[in-house]
Amino acid sequence: MKLILGIESSCDETGVAIYHAERGLLAHALHTQVAMHNEYGGVVPELASRDHIRRMLPLIRLVADEAGCRLQHLNAIAYTQGPGLSGALLVGASIACSLAYSLNIPAIGIHHLEGHLLSPLLSDSTLKFPFIALLVSGGHTQLMRVDGVGKYTLLGETLDDAAGEAFDKSAKLLGLCYPGGPELAKLANQGRPGHFHLPRPMQHSGNLDFSFSGLKTAVLTLTRQHTLDEQTRADIAYATQEAIVEVLTTKSLAALKQTGLNQLVIAGGVGANQHLRAQLNEAASKNGFRVFYPDLEFCTDNGAMIAFAAALRLQKQEMKSDYRFNVRPRWDLQQFNYSE
Ligand code: KG4
Ligand code: ZN
């Protein structure tokens, strides 16, 4: 089981990669649909599915060429089985399963968040189990304890909006393009500290859960109370980013204290945020723990993390060839734990 093709199509990125169990990542490619969804202010699921159909096979050919291998050399095909948009997931699942069937090799459904939380291991072999993972994407905000591949315990999660959603919705209120997270972060660079103060919901709730919907309402109130000139927008962006990052940092520290662990993994798109990275690095040097980030290109959705998660699973489990597939638009990562 050495050569694995990974396919990601859970949302608005078509990601394909080939991973070799001994030689590592051989090639990967990504097509982002951001420009296509931009004019609608968010992801349009039907358009996303159609675009995955258009892009997937050319990307698979491209990656195989780059890796210098033929499809016949593949030993397994991994695809994102969930969570995500059902139509988009179905594109990846059906292509992966039919290709695997034609090649008579296993097709492996991977949990998208498992891909994210194992992705720092792709580039940093000094990370060892157990660790705490902060999963911060457009749809999820969770703190997990990771004791090994397939051994995940949920410590806390958002009760409403995800951190990425808080970034995106606040960005929209500030008139920024979708996806708003990186745009808001850019605007925040021009913002002045201390001009606005936004609430830090549930920061001291005594547990590891999050809530971000109140923050969005507070941003809405600010945008209504002030004339939105360039500087004011930047100041609001600054305050928004500061509030989200402070809550994420405080809760991550609390998770490390509660479990006594000293390694923190940041996974998911919001992990690309430079202010979050700076705050976590500072907290790490003060409190004596290590923070691990995936390489920037593997922070957001990609096929490499799916191929890699499958490679780790294959080291532990024999996979049967079963080409019946069902996608899981909602999927609890803990249900996915397996015993050895
Ligand atoms: O993990 P991801 O690529 O897709 C999902 O599985 O959701 O995460 C996307 C999220 C979006 O909400 C996006 O705005 C946010 O990650 N994001 C950022 C940054 N880059 C991406 N948020 C804040 N700062 C960034 N630099
Ligand atoms: Zn993701």
From TrEMBL:
Lineage: Bacteria, Pseudomonadati, Pseudomonadota, Betaproteobacteria, Nitrosomonadales
Note on cofactor: Binds 1 Fe(2+) ion per subunit.
Annotated CDD domains: ASKHA_NBD_TsaD_bac (cd24133)
Gene3D superfamilies given in the database record: 3.30.420.40
A molecular function (GO) term: tRNA N(6)-L-threonylcarbamoyladenine synthase activity
Protein name: tRNA N6-adenosine threonylcarbamoyltransferase
Species, as recorded: Candidatus Nitrotoga arctica
InterPro entries: ATPase_NBD, Gcp-like_dom, KAE1/TsaD, Peptidase_M22_CS, TsaD
Biological role: Required for the formation of a threonylcarbamoyl group on adenosine at position 37 (t(6)A37) in tRNAs that read codons beginning with adenine. Is involved in the transfer of the threonylcarbamoyl moiety of threonylcarbamoyl-AMP (TC-AMP) to the N6 group of A37, together with TsaE and TsaB. TsaD likely plays a direct catalytic role in this reaction.
Positions of substrate binding: 135-139, 168, 181, 273
Family: Belongs to the KAE1 / TsaD family.
Record's keyword terms, sorted: Acyltransferase, Cytoplasm, Iron, Metal-binding, Transferase, tRNA processing
